[in-house]
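TA notes, week 10

Several of you asked for a full example with nothing omitted. So below is the full record: structure tokens for the whole chain, then the designed sequence directly under it. When grading your own attempts, check the secondary structure regions first.
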């Protein structure tokens, strides 16, 4: 039976497991590592507690109920943030915001007395607290394992009835009108002689539905299981399939069984989307055109996005040299805009293909006055070249590069991706400050494949400032690319060593540091049970907030079962920063934005190069304090000055406020980023009278 049906189409889904159905070794390693912890000991819930003598099957069923409950509580609960409940002050679990009702005014006010954090006695009073979000009552999700299945689909329109034959109806004695309509709707009627007339007696030959198969084969291991699926022997499913769209991983199109299958299905069109046959073309023309025009003004800072409209197989950072594979005889290459018409007549519409970006036309469309203004700007820069060179010589590590991979907030837009900033310090390494979605895609457009491979090899640390999606959704894909380049996707048999005996670490044993709030580190660990993206090769570090009395400390995020042992064993001592991180110091402070939001200052030896990064926040005096005498400040500037009220309400900064933080620090340079997507191309930057 179809997996899904509506009035237009029926869909059959086919799950294909790699040949042998065995879990690959590295996924198995990740699964075992994840399930090693005692899940039930970590969650203090009564509703889903483990009964005595529970079998593995019963445990999995209970875990399924827990997952269902979490999803239900996330999306269908009646919980409200404004709901307050009474509770004895001594019983309140911290951290929490506590309120009391003023006995005179009857108004609810914030409680300002001693807190139930164990530091001092508290009065025996009843207070008001918000009820916790039900979905947050679970500290850890139940362990799971990777799903290796690849899903393919057959989509087919419904069969069409044959044409109504009036001559047959008349000959059979069926009165014209209502009974003719009933027959066309597939219902039997009686003729004038009382005989039953069925639809097939008055309808011409019908036509089966027209269909298309969308087949995803990530690697060679999936080919044989797909070809052997029983669906291909079912006329109910296969009849009417007019085209196959093949989404193939590297090398898959050369598999003999796949080519034989295509020959067997010679009556259908075969369209292949594969890096072996499709060149690396630009997909977002408007962005590329804008960048090409900007490159006419400043080619150093606006390189044309890397692409190659000709070379196949594609050259990528993880496949610099691949054998050429001939396209199967009865196949065509997928192209952007290619359309398949199923009804009323099947056809491959090539006229809808989007033409390649005409770079010469883009260059010709740049207004002449833009060139004139650019020449004037270059002349001004040239006139100041001596002072700029002197300034450059005065800063430590002047060959350091800061590449803004995403300067927009909230969601990707046509012209700006979300937050990610790459810092490249020659001779030391590469560092990512936040890693929003598609950061890896941005890197693949900024760098040619061989250079991107070098960037990934040099990657030492990823800093995630807070847990908003526009700052961390691209983290796993970047880690996976690093894992593939540096470790060939082979998991580590040993935990990271926080006490290296030498000042340099062998790259083959190097762990990538992820420094963030513990919530991010929890997520990375749990995601490792879904996919082996390289968690075993990470150095997950939580960082404490710097205070006037105490510097920040880095602590290895431990397996939960080991968290009760001596925490000092998991502290990364500053004398090992250089070997493990390439840094001489790393300090962070909490900032006003969301729970766990932090700003950070990275210090590189020997003559201190200091890079300060705000993440998202309101202007912070604490951040200015730890960033004093910084070399470069990278600060968010979400709003222009006219929207300061929005900045306060949404806990962001304006351009003037960001520059003010730079002034408080005495920063040598400031990079503004994280602009609201309302400023599509150029943020509003105004020069105040009498100021530069």
């Amino acid at each position: 039976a179809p997996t899904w049906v509506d009035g237009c189409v029926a869909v059959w889904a086919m799950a294909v497991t790699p040949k042998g159905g065995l879990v690959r070794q590295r996924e198995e390693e990740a699964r075992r590592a994840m399930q090693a912890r005692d899940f039930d000991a970590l969650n203090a819930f009564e509703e889903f507690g483990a009964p005595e003598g529970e079998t593995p099957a019963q445990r999995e069923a209970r875990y399924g109920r827990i997952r269902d409950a979490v999803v239900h509580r996330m999306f269908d609960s009646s919980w409200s943030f404004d709901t307050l409940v009474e509770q004895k002050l001594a019983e309140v679990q911290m951290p929490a915001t506590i309120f009391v009702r003023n006995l005179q005014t009857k108004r609810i006010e914030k409680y300002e007395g001693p807190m139930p954090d164990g530091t001092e006695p508290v009065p025996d009073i009843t207070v008001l607290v918000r009820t916790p979000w039900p979905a947050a009552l679970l500290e850890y999700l139940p362990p799971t394992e990777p799903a290796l299945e690849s899903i393919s689909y057959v989509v087919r329109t419904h069969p069409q009835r044959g044409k109504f034959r009036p001559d047959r109806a008349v000959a059979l004695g069926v009165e014209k009108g209502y009974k003719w309509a009933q027959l066309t709707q597939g219902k039997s009627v009686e003729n004038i002689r009382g005989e039953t007339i069925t639809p097939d007696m008055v309808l011409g030959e019908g036509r089966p539905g027209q269909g298309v198969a969308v087949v995803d084969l990530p690697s060679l291991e999936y080919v044989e299981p797909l070809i052997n699926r029983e669906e291909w022997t079912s006329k109910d499913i296969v009849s009417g399939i007019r085209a196959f769209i093949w989404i193939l991983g590297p090398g898959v199109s050369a598999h003999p069984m796949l080519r034989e299958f295509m020959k067997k299905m010679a009556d259908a069109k075969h369209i292949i989307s594969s890096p072996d046959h499709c060149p690396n073309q630009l997909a977002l023309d408007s962005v590329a055109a804008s960048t090409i025009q900007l490159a006419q003004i400043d080619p150093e800072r606006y390189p044309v996005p890397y692409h190659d409209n000709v070379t196949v197989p594609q050259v990528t950072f993880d496949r610099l040299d691949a054998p050429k594979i001939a396209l199967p005889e009865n196949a065509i290459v997928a192209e952007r805009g290619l359309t398949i018409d199923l009804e009323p007549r099947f056809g491959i519409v090539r006229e809808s293909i989007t033409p390649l970006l005409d770079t010469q036309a883009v260059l010709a469309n740049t207004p002449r006055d833009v060139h004139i203004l650019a020449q004037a700007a270059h002349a001004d820069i040239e006139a100041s070249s001596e002072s700029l060179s002197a300034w450059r010589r005065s800063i430590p590590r002047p060959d350091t590069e800061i590449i803004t991979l995403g300067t927009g907030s909230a969601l990707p837009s046509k012209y700006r991706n979300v937050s990610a900033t790459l810092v490249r310090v020659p001779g030391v390494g590469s560092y990512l400050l936040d890693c929003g979605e598609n950061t890896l895609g941005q890197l693949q457009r900024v760098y040619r494949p061989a250079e991107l491979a070098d960037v990934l090899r040099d990657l030492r640390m990823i800093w995630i400032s807070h847990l908003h999606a526009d700052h961390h959704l691209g983290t796993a894909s970047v880690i996976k690319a690093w894992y593939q380049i540096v470790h060939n996707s082979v998991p580590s048999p040993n935990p990271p060593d926080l006490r290296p005996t030498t000042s340099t670490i062998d790259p083959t044993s190097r762990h990538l540091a992820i420094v963030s709030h513990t919530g991010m580190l929890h997520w990375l660990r749990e995601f490792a049970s879904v996919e082996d993206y390289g968690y075993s090769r990470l150095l997950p570090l939580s960082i404490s907030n710097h205070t006037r009395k105490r510097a920040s400390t880095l602590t290895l995020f431990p397996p939960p079962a080991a968290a009760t042992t001596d925490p000092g064993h998991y502290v990364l001592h500053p004398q090992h920063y250089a070997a493990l991180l390439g840094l001489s110091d790393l300090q962070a402070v909490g900032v006003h934005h969301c729970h766990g939001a932090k700003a950070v200052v990275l210090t590189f030896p020997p003559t201190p190069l200091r890079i300060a990064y705000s993440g998202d926040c309101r202007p912070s005096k604490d951040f200015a304090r730890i960033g004093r005498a910084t070399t470069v400040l990278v600060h968010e500037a979400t709003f222009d000055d006219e929207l300061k009220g929005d900045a306060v309400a949404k806990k962001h900064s304006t351009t003037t406020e960001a520059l003010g933080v730079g002034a408080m620090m005495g920063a040598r340079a400031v990079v503004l980023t994280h602009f609201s997507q309302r400023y599509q191309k150029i943020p509003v930057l105004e020069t105040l009278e009498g100021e530069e």
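Residues 38-51+58-75+84-106+122-142 form one domain. Use that as a sanity check on your answer.
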